[in-house]
Specification:
It is a single chain. The protein has 103 residues and is of the alpha+beta class. It has 2 domains: 42 residues, no CATH class; 41 residues, no CATH class. 32% of the residues lie in helices and 25% in strands. The strands form 2 sheets. The protein has a two-stranded antiparallel ribbon with strand order 1-2. It has a two-stranded antiparallel sheet with strand order 3-4. The longest helix has 18 residues. The protein is elongated.
Length: 103
Amino acid sequence: MTGAAVVFLVAISAVAGSAQAQELHVGGCIGGWTTFNCVGRWSRAGDPYVREVPHPSDPADQARAAERDKRWVDRCHPTITQDRYGVARYHYAQPGCEFGIGD
């Protein structure tokens, strides 16, 4: 490893050591004597593809959201079955329900 790669890894270690438990730090370097590439990623812990959506704060909005969810469940009838590998799979009564499409 060259000096820059070592400095990068030391910097990542210093930041990761002082990080909070709810954060995720990943980094590394690859390459040889003449070429190398280093990368680092800092993010919140958890699935990077899941986005947290805030719940409605207004009671009227909460009531509308609850009614919309109830209509979706009544229309789509979601069920969970296990496939031959034991993985839980959702099944729906209507097309488009897997995408959250409502009325």
